[in-house]
Amino acid sequence: MDNEKRASQQLDSVAVPLPPIPPVAKPENGTSNTPSDAEETLEYNNPTDEETTYPTFWKLVLLSIALCLALFCISLDQTILATAIPKITDQFESVGDNGWYSSSYLFATASTQLFFGKLYTMYSAKWIFLAGLAIFEIGSLIAGAATSSAMLIAGRTVSGVGAASLFPGSIIIIVSAVPLRQRPIYVSLLGSMHGVASIVGPLLGGVFTDHISWRWCFYINLPLGAITAICLLFFFPPGAPPQGGLPWNEQLKHFDLIGSFFLIPGVTCLLLALQWGGRQGISKYPWSDARIIALLSLSGVLLVIFCAIQVWQKDKATVPSYLIRNRNMFGALLYIMGISGAMFICMYYLPWWFQAVKSVSATKSGIMSLPTMLGLVISSIICGFLVTALGYYTPFLIVSSMVGTVGAGLLTLLKTNSGASQWLGYQVILSVGLGMGAQNAFLIPQVAVPKTELATATAVLTFIQTLTSAIFLAIGQAVFQNQLVNNLAVYAPSISPELVFATGPLRLQYQIPAESLPAVVGAFNAAITEVFYVAVAGCALSVVGPLFLEWKSLKKAEHKE
Q1: Both 157 and 288 in a single domain?
Q2: Which one has a higher pLDDT value, 205 or 546?
């Protein structure tokens, strides 16, 4: 692609200024520059687009396919198991382990995302990405060949470690391969893979489980990963890392091993407490159980120590404090916390509503949820083109939060007799709102921080997205359990809550007496719609984030990159 074709024209419009804030002080013990203003930051992002050599069109096409396949694999790993777990637990006689097949993957991913962010700043993105992909593939191979439940959990854990490197790595690779003004399209395309996997995953899992073997839920990653590896090996050159060339003792300091020593067990304890805790008699342990209290307390202590270490380490920290003090990064974090939490709540509980209230199968509930998934994918891609055309992402984030809040609020109005026009329309509004901004948030670090810190900033956003989603789901679970128990006491006092929870939404019509079924369904409807208020709160929180963002044109910023 010729340089003339890559050169963008500046917009004639004037950026809308926001009130100035005091500049962030430069770290005392490092050389990194930490400007708080995005325009200052762009001065560090050299060389300019005119001086940068980007891949040719066909190389970029192959690279995009490779990255999309990698992200499709890690997203598929989170959605394909839903229909396979019953067959797996039957084969291994491990009903008590079924929660670990998903949570072990999540724990490993959340615990290592920030570490990979540091690796991307010190070493070539190409080789770190390929190493992470290899780890993910090894984990998939172990899980697919598992001869016991413990071996399957071990494979899932290994896959989770590899998966932690792939999304931030994809963003870093796109940054080096695509001019700034065109990146919204590619970032949206990458982000849409989660929506595609959410549609395909349960259906593909059912096909593999019923007609081939559940093991192919993991083996499917091997050929897709091989295609990704081949494309990267032959069509993407290894670039110089932002902070490469440091002696090994300096590299060790930048890895913040002391901070990681406290972060990983802190995150693990928190996620374990959220996984195990709940209402007495329903979850593994009640919230008042000494084990849950100990896990939460230990998690709090470890994470507070981690935060103190980050302040002490300054620019060598896993999460440098000046990233949080940067107004644009702070706004991005607030936005991603709210919008991700809301998205996962809706994607998790909408199928439950269809199964419990509309009495449909798991497969049909997935089909009835298609408007949400398709809306997320389509609106994300369209918004990527619009941001590229207009140059501004901030207005789309604002509209995303507002429309998402309205969509989540509409879900709280669902009734047992709600028709297709309602649950279809509500999903469309919700998905358009969430899809407009969820991936655009990852554009913010590209104009908010120096390139030397871009990998770290992207990893921080990804980590917050993962952790917040788990926390919101735990809050949603607590609301659901409490509301369902309370509603059953009002609507169907003769029905035991323990029986309802043990039955699950799919078998209500078979296990609950016919005369009590309408009341139980009503209790489910009231409980699930209360959970959607958690999604409303998440979307409302995300509204605050864009208020901190400066209105910077990607077209104008490109000339300073």
Answers
A1: no
A2: 546
